[in-house]
Amino acid sequence: MDPLLYLVGLVSLFLVWVKVKGLDYVIIHQRWIFVCLFLLPLSVIFDVYYYLRAWIIFKMCSAPKQHDQRVRDIQRQVREWKDEGGKTYMCTGRPGWLTVSLRVGKYKKTHKNIMINMMDILEVDTKRQVVRVEPLVNMGQVTALLNSIGWTLPVLPELDDLTVGGLIMGTGIESSSHIYGLFQHICVAYELVLADGSLVRCTAKEKSDLFYAVPWSCGTLGFLVAAEIRIIPARAWVKMRYEPVRGLDAICQRFAEESANKENQFVEGLQYSLDEAVIMTGVMTDVAEPDKINRIGHYYKPWFFKHVENFLRENRSAVEYIPLRHYYHRHTRSIFWELQDIIPFGNNPFFRYLFGWMVPPKISLLKLTQGETIRRLYEQHHVVQDMLVPMKHMQSAISCFHNDIHVYPLWLCPFVLPSQPGMVHPKGDEDELYVDIGAYGEPKVKHFQARASTRQLEKFVREVHGFQMLYADVYMDRQEFWEMFDGTLYHKLREELECKAAFPEVYDKICKSARH
């Protein structure tokens, strides 16, 4: 009984302190307390619920039957909107805080919300080497199921909570993208409910204009209700080689060489300063050397980016064997390196062993509880951006990042961009190798201003025919936006499918200068 009274006393003192200081003060200045006491346990409950739900539904094979009914329900909602005169735009009814994007979509309050509760894996067809899924299936579900039966996605983006719908309507990338391209390039079919309530299926050969226009459209051409995605045989391990490199010239040259080498199934770089980086290459294998196995996904293991940094500090190359699923979600526990700003002691061994099994907190819950004050602080003093630039401009791009925002580590991920129709394609008629430069953290430049500094980056990216991921804050005006992205096919489809009265233009949906 005494321990219980002690606990009640501590909780009471904490609540009194919160009352005296004010909830806003605690959430802003001591956010780790709120995260550790409330958000971590809630995140565990969320994960357990969705894992058990997906497992039961798939085992009972009930998902396909329910899927058809759910599609009909979406069609009914769209037709009701049309019968009522279509007075406002439509959007999905999923709350904005549930998305992984840090952007808060205010349009949800003014648009007609179409409820889409579709989060099931429908079918795994190993003969066709395709998995058919609903749009809210996330990467954690996909790896848990596919890896257990010996398959995987060719491109499996990092964070557990990223959904198929978000990766198609936005974009997705992984360290295998130098071979397979972006997430959209491993998709073979989309099923959508259009503005008139009709259901269509599109592929590269059937309704191909729609198939190529859907990626990056952010749900402004129709409601995605299912997707078919390529799968490939999986192996038990990833044989990973870590190579520290110094000097910006050497980093860019080495990274480009490894990215062009198709024998590397995975290529990734973590850049810790302007002239220090670790370049990682990997291949899948079924055989591992026992003394080199590192199960990095265990909750008590050091955060991956800190583990990688050790090779740089010790100036040594090394080889490790990592379980495939652990590799896919190597940055999940620390949300790349964002969690160090929320729980500063999160990588401490004591914390990892006692509480690491609850990490990370759900990004959706962090958004839900951040409040307007924290949101403004993050907007003005925090950067979360992914810029996609041609590999030949990598060096000047990193220098631009260094001068304009000075955020480290930088995430470097190569990808091949096929010459295909749509909003994003190379400048010429041939496939081209690009690099995604991801900056996540607090800028260290004294002159940082969120709008001005980001616009500087955006200007550089436009000039080298690069692209900005649309999950982040975008400050371009409309003309600049359509200079960066090719809207030819997109606008044609908007006209043909009568989307202009049903959905906002993608620019109006995602750009800060267009939102109110």
Describe this structure as you would to a colleague.
This is Delta(24)-sterol reductase. It is found in: Endoplasmic reticulum membrane; Golgi apparatus membrane. Its cofactor is FAD. One of its GO terms (molecular function) is FAD binding. With 516 residues, this protein is an alpha+beta fold. It is built from 19 helices and 17 strands. It has helices at 2-21, 23-29, 31-60, 63-83, 139-148, 164-169, 177-180, 208-213, 248-260, 304-313, 324-328, 339-342, 349-355, 363-381, 394-404, 450-463, 478-484, 488-496, 506-510, and strands at residues 90-92, 112-114, 121-125, 130-133, 151-152, 187-193, 199-202, 223-230, 232-233, 237-246, 266-273, 276-285, 318-323, 383-390, 410-417, 432-441, 467-468. The strands form 4 sheets. An 8-stranded antiparallel sheet has the order 13-10-12-11-15-16-14-17, with helices on both faces. A hairpin with a 2-residue loop joins strand 11 (266-273) and strand 12 (276-285). Helix 2 (23-29) crosses helix 3 and helix 15 (394-404) packs antiparallel against helix 16 (450-463). The longest helix is centred in the first third of the chain and has 30 residues, at 31-60. It is globular. It starts with a helix and ends in a 6-residue tail after the last helix.
Q: Can you summarize this structure?
A:
This protein is α+β, with helices and mostly antiparallel strands. It catalyses: lanosterol + NADPH + H(+) = 24,25-dihydrolanosterol + NADP(+); 5alpha-cholest-8-en-3beta-ol + NADP(+) = zymosterol + NADPH + H(+).
Mind describing the biggest β-sheet? 8 strands, antiparallel
The termini sit apart by 54 Å
What count of helical segments does DSSP give?
19
Give the structural class.
alpha+beta
User: How many β-strand stretches?
Assistant: 17
Low-confidence spans: none
Percent of residues in helices: 40-55%
Query: What Rg, in angstroms, do the CA atoms define?
Result: 23 Å
Average of pLDDT: 88
Protein name: Delta(24)-sterol reductase
Subcellular location: Endoplasmic reticulum membrane; Golgi apparatus membrane
Catalytic activity: lanosterol + NADPH + H(+) = 24,25-dihydrolanosterol + NADP(+); 5alpha-cholest-8-en-3beta-ol + NADP(+) = zymosterol + NADPH + H(+)
Main location: endoplasmic reticulum
